[in-house]
Write the structure tokens for this entry.
Amino acid sequence: MSYSKRSDKFKKLMQIRKVLENEAEQFPEAMCDCATRLIYEEIPFITIMNGTFNGRPHVWAYDMEQKVHIDLTLDQFNPDFAPINILSTDDAIIMGYELGSLSEWGKLFENNFLSLKKEFSGKKTMGAVLKTLKRSTRSRFKFW
């Protein structure tokens, strides 16, 4: 299954982006981890990548089946970027993505995700999760 604009995967990405825009006041600023975790939960064959974008800490998704990088928050770095970015590895490198390792920075995102996951347990819909997230994102995801 590809990411054409009519595909189920692309529609799911549009849904995730819309929910984040409506529920998280600061979106897309400092929301890359949250957006990527939602992609990971909603789309099969996704892995979470961490590293930098043009020298700034960043997290994005990688579809292992389609071999593409997926980023719903790239416009936090420049409002001219598209709201949904699907890139080959070559294009990602040219744009300024660099893959990192699980550094202290990466552990910080992981710890925040685990903390949020406890709050979300029992909530069944993305909307319910994001209502809780809306209250907590200002303190949990302001890293830089």
About this structure: The mean pLDDT is 78. The beta strands are 46-53, 56-63, 68-71, 85-87, 97-99. Residues 8-140 form one domain.
